[in-house]
Amino acid sequence: MWRPRDGSEAPIEDWLALILAPRVGPRTFVRLMEGFGSPSAVRAASDTRLEQIGLKPETVAALRQPEAELIDTICAWAEQPDAHLITLADPRYPPALTEIADPPPLLYARGDARLLSEPQIAIVGSRNPTPGGREITSDFARRLAGHGLIVTSGLAIGIDGAAHAAALETGHSIAVLGTGPDRVYPAVHRDLARRLVERGVMVSELPPGQGPLASSFPRRNRLISGLSLGVLVTEAALKSGSLITARQALEQGREVFAIPGSIRNPLSRGCHALIREGAKLVEEPDEILAELAPQLRAALLASERAPAIGTPDSVLTLPPDQAQLLTEMGHDPVTLDDLTSRTGLAVERISSMLLLMELEGHVSSLPGGRYARVHNRS
């Protein structure tokens, strides 16, 4: 996988000229970056050199005369306060996507782009769920988001919409679009999309103005799974996009979870098929949290700070960020708001750390959304 190196920065116009050129998909883009180092270097190469490495004449011609009107439209869209163009060389590009076989060279995002790099759980399922399936989905999404995981889905009607809406009640959510970032599809989710921009993020690899095409949604599904630590399927028929997402997750090395159901419910058959293929059967959100604990721990360790001076010896066995958090908790029950005020950390990060510390027996959750240290451990 190509990684940006010194001198790989390029004007956004060069990125767009290359990405929008015909026959330049994610894999071709990475191959070009590995050979030339930056979009600017690709555009500066001779026609002969570009054709020698396999680019078609129409692709080379597009690099010389890119779609100026579309590029201007994209740049104008990106000037909105909540809009972001995030290239593969951008520090905000989600690390999880760099691990998949064909990461998009550019992401179009609306909302809090920082959430794209936070630990996520994808929840997908039927567009026509049963009332019970919708209720289970909402319960899982609400509780998982409340523990600090970002709930990611595809903004479709049914399970996707239920997962987004419930997650926003207790935390944050990410919608991966099969359209451009300026389109809401289906239109019935316009209000949900507004809330997602306010308390989450909507992201697409398609440019502004791109409407829904059948071919776009399978590619969107690989991003839903690629962004996430794992994928939960709550209800799905045997032939559905949700099963495609789950199988892409397996190919990407992600965890796959499935909720079983009645053998008389056609929407249980997809989940049962996944379980037979090796997906983990889950009945409670805590089972997912426990399974993902090692990945959550690794994500936190990757960005931890040195422990503060004066941290008690009794908590130095914890990772530095968790040790600091335990110190700031003191010896009386505290709320998330208390800890946010004391540490200056984002509430979703504190929730992730508390989850791991609770699983390992360092803290316990109390009624009323409070937490306390377990004194026999520290």
From TrEMBL:
SUPFAM superfamilies membership: MCP/YpsA-like (SSF102405), RuvA domain 2-like (SSF47781)
InterPro entries attached to this UniProt entry: DprA (IPR003488), DprA_WH (IPR041614), DrpA_SLOG (IPR057666), RuvA_2-like (IPR010994), WH-like_DNA-bd_sf (IPR036388)
Chain ranges of the Smf/DprA SLOG domain: 85-292
DprA winged helix domain ranges (all copies): 314-369
Biological process, per Gene Ontology: DNA-mediated transformation
Matches recorded under Pfam families: DNA_processg_A, DprA_N, WHD_DprA
Superkingdom: Bacteria
NCBIfam families: dprA
Family: Belongs to the DprA/Smf family.
Protein name as annotated: DNA-protecting protein DprA
Organism expressing this protein natively: Allochromatium palmeri
